[in-house]
Amino acid sequence: MKATASILIDRPISAVWDFVADVANMEIWVNGVSALAPTSEGEFGVGSTFKSKYTYAGKTHAVTYVITEFDPPNCITMRSTSGPFPFEGSTELREEAEGTRVFNTIDASPTNAFLTVWFAVLGVVLKLMMRRQLRKELVELRSHLEETETGEQED
Fold first, then answer.
1. Domains in the chain: how many in total?
2. Strands 99-108 and 49-56, bridge-based pairing
3. Strand 2-9, strand 87-96: pairing
């Protein structure tokens, strides 16, 4: 099941890319993600791996990821290699006159027969919930990047 949301951020594409391509920043804008750590050595790009904790519905899971696409400053895509459910997440950037358009996409798959039926029966509702969550994360990303630019947020 695939869902996408987008938002316009009043920042140059290079600034947005520098932030979203640093997976350590996921804790700031991706809901439920914490304790990010690299698990591979060398230059970051396709094939790089990392891990995190992911908290959802009161339960915390360990998740591992591999970068499957790394195209600066346009797109970073990662796939989970372990965790509560398989998914692929992509963040795509497009330069526009007013700033940078960011597309956040997730494609999640059921892991068993029960979830397959659940996805089929509740598909429309689940997709709306996924899209709402992606949009919320993008609002957090925009807020962080635009506040950082104006100097309103000091960490």
1. 1
2. unpaired
3. unpaired
